[in-house]
Specification:
The structure holds two protein chains of two kinds. By secondary structure, chain A is mostly helical. Chain A has two domains: about 80 residues; about 50 residues, no CATH class. Chain A is about 60% helix and about 0% strand. Chain A contains four helices and no strands. The N and C termini of chain A lie far apart (about 50 Å). In chain B, α1 runs antiparallel to α5 and α4 packs antiparallel against α5. Chain B has a domain of about 160 residues: Up-down Bundle (Four Helix Bundle (Hemerythrin (Met), subunit A)), CATH 1.20.120.80. The chains are: A mainly alpha, B mainly alpha.
Chain lengths: ~120, ~260
């Protein structure tokens, strides 16, 4: 993961992806797209499981794009740190938003003149 | 810019004098583009969080609304974007290896795919405009999810209507009468609001990519990119991969429910 540079790659400034890696990633992505569409027509035993399968495939596809098309596997570690920090911040954001979702009291309308555009949600407790 | 300021450099004339060398300039740009991409992740995360919250609270509107979307068009667009990501990554390799001809071809294919994506999106959006499946109060569907037009005497009402149980709503639009079936689950408009917000923002990113790739194509044809100066190709490709990445998640989240 260390520095690349003149010595390692001769004339170029960064890692050169081999044709094998590029074509391999491309074919894998096409294949996974077909798989994910096909999986949508199969019932894995519940909406939740189907969603989990679709998200698992999407995450694998995203990882392939990031590691090979975006060269992150061969790039400086610091670029990974930046990108993962962005993902972690987004996860934190989502986590805090989800933590108290059972407590949403969207049937309590404070401003009667400006009511929300959606039907209130009453959690089944 | 003084050209060939550094005598020891074989140097591209695009290497600015305030950098030590080509490597310094390239690394600075690369750091900046990664910071930008991290920011883009956070930018889109707001909409993804909105999607996740709404879907956990109201799963039925996503199951119903998704039936209005065309899986084939979504899948074709996924393949188009993956193809363009491949040519973008290939373009970077060509620039690194001074393969001028293939670089131009790769950039042209990437640009064509970006335009193809927008064309398919245009057909999808115009179908939604014709069918009245739009965001917010403009959600007044004229067809059912199978594409069958509602009979002429059917009472078509938007899914936001004024009633006790549906706060929010436009009071001028009456709720369905007793015994009259509502055309769709309450709040189905929220599915389309999120759909247009997320695919719209993504589409704007694709549109921006179109201009970037036109610029790159022109510069590539002028022979500006060399093994010691290919930063713009690399940075644009990274941006383009991120746009692809977001679509990889949008596709199953909207089309494959």
């Amino acid at each position: 993961m260390a520095a690349h540079g003149h010595g390692e790659h001769g004339e170029t400034l960064s890692h050169i992806a081999s044709m094998r890696v590029l074509v391999g990633t491309f074919v894998a992505l096409l294949f996974l797209t077909v798989i994910t569409v096909a999986a949508a027509y199969v019932d894995f035993g519940g909406r939740g499981l189907n969603l989990a399968v679709a998200m698992l495939i999407a995450t694998v596809k995203a990882s392939l794009v990031i590691l090979y098309f975006m060269h992150l596997r061969y790039d400086r570690l610091f670029h990974t740190v930046i990108f993962v920090a962005g993902l972690l911040a987004a996860t934190l954001f989502l986590g805090f938003a989800l933590v108290d979702r059972g407590q949403y009291e969207d049937d309590v309308i404070w401003d009667k003149d400006n009511q929300p555009a959606i039907k209130p949600y009453t959690p089944e407790l | 810019m003084s050209e060939h300021a550094h005598g020891d450099q074989k140097g591209s004339r695009f290497i600015q004098h305030h950098y030590d060398d080509a490597q310094h300039q390239f690394d600075s740009g690369k750091l900046a583009i990664w910071l930008f991409l991290a920011q883009e992740v956070l930018f889109f995360s707001a909409l993804f969080v909105a999607y996740i919250i709404f879907r956990t609270q109201h799963p039925e509107i996503f199951e119903y609304g998704s039936q209005y979307l065309d899986r084939t068009m979504g899948a074709v667009n996924t393949l188009v974007l993956i193809g363009s990501s491949f040519t973008a990554a290939y373009a970077v390799r060509c620039a690194q290896l001074r393969n001028q001809r293939t670089l131009v071809i790769c950039l042209a294919i990437t640009l064509a795919c970006a335009l193809g994506f927008l064309t398919i999106k245009y057909f999808e959006y115009s179908e939604k405009i014709h069918h009245g499946t739009l965001y917010g109060k403009k959600f007044v569907p004229h067809v059912d999810p199978d594409g069958a037009t509602f009979p002429e005497d059917a009472v078509i009402k938007p899914c936001i209507h004024g009633s006790e149980g549906n706060l929010g709503a436009d009071p001028s639009i009456p709720p369905p009468a007793e015994g009259e079936a509502a055309p769709c689950p309450d709040n189905t408009n929220m599915f389309f609001t999120l759909y247009f917000a997320m695919t719209g923002l993504h589409g704007l990113h694709v549109l921006f990519g179109v201009f970037v790739f036109i610029w790159l194509l022109v510069r590539a044809m002028k022979g500006h990119f060399t093994p010691d100066y290919y930063g713009p190709v690399d940075y644009a490709a990274l941006y383009w991969h991120l746009v692809d990445l977001i679509w990889i998640f949008l596709f199953p989240l909207y089309y494959l429910i």
